[in-house]
Automatic annotation (TrEMBL):
The species this protein was found in: Candidatus Electronema aureum
Name assigned to this protein: Uncharacterized protein
Length: 120
């Protein structure tokens, strides 16, 4: 079921191919009845030196109420959305989203105090 949800998300969300500190990631968590979707801020990516293979400590600030800090130990394909994985027997998917910069207005209007543009 999680693979079908991932396929639908890839049609709707502008994902990045890489994940870096400072990125916003979409986290899909398989739950009992419905999948849970939430955003998280990547606050750090550090190599797990206790393992022979390439694993990373992915530090996340979950943008939930209340906000929560978590650290997950994942391989690169897992935190870049190249593959889904399980935690506690439940499917998971993590991938950074591409945030588009707003397009600048071609003809700025008059400025208000404090440098804001007046919109009528």
């Amino acid at each position: 079921m999680i693979e079908q949800t991932i396929a639908e998300l890839k049609k709707l969300v502008p994902f990045k191919e890489t994940t870096e500190s400072g990125d916003i990631v979409l986290v899909l968590a398989e739950e009992e009845e419905h999948p849970a979707l939430l955003y998280a801020l990547v606050t750090g990516i550090e190599r797990d030196t206790t393992r022979r293979d390439e694993w990373w400590h992915l530090s996340l600030q979950l943008l939930s109420v209340p906000p929560q800090s978590v650290v997950w130990t994942l391989r690169t394909p897992q935190f870049t959305g190249q593959e889904s994985f399980t935690m506690g027997g439940k499917g998971r998917f993590v991938k950074a989203i591409r945030i588009e910069k707003p397009q600048s207005v071609s003809s700025p209007g008059p400025k208000a105090k404090g440098g804001l543009r007046l919109v009528k």
